[in-house]
Amino acid sequence: MIKEIENRRSIRKYKRHEISKEIIEDIIYSTTLAPSAKNRQPWKFIVYQGEEKSKLVDVMHQGIKSEKITHKLMPEWAFAIPDAENTVRVMEEAPCLIAVLNTNQKTPFDSIEDEKRIVEICDSLSIGAAIENMILTATSYGLGTLWIANTCFAYNELIDFIETDSQLTGIVAIGFANEAPAKRPRKPLTDIVEYR
Q: Is the pTM here over 0.90, yes or no?
């Protein structure tokens, strides 16, 4: 698995080749093996391909267009909208998109009590571990992935389209890479580790 960790890259260009249902199910099965706080397993995955994927991408595009005008959801992050628009292009190219839901939480745009926030953080960490399993398993199959958080710019439109009141934590694009990005720089251990 160290090889997959070393080889994993964020892929933003994809070939049009479809991915078999067996591989997708194996990738999703790996998510169920992730640790989760209190074994809550707060995840649900919705796979989009073909026409349904195109509809999801269009909803994302329309939501970003609306946010670009209103700056209602993410006013302090308006500078990131061009990146979100590029994400739509990536989503169009990828043959498979997997929406990741936190079934124990609701919209992140509402205020919640402190204790519930702690639980939300624990669920988010659990889902992060599940997504890491997903993208490493995809890497082992020779596939590329992109962990997409720009869904925040089209959040309400996306959850309406998905027909859920669960929290949308993001989308993962999966497909055969049409690029080979170099390894991105990482902070040295001396900057991030402290021994006491």
A: yes
For tokens 């999703």, what's the residue? 28
Residue-wise pLDDT for 32-81, tens only, equals 999 999 999 999 999 999 999 999 999 999 999 999 999 999 999 999 99
CB 73 within 8 A of CB 156: yes
Residue 41: phi and psi, rounded to 5, are 45, 65
Q: Mind giving me the DSSP string for the chain?
A: -HHHHHH--B---B------HHHHHHHHHHHTTS--GGG---EEEEEE-HHHHHHHHHHHHHHHHHHHHH--S-GGGGGGHHHHHHHHHHHHH-SEEEEEEETT---TTS---HHHHHHHHHHHHHHHHHHHHHHHHHHHTT-EEEEE-GGGGGHHHHHHHHT--SEEEEEEEEE-BS--PPPPP---HHHH----
Instruction: Say how many C-beta atoms besides its own lie within 10 A of residue 188's C-beta.
Output: 8
Calpha distance 161→60 (Å, rounded): 10
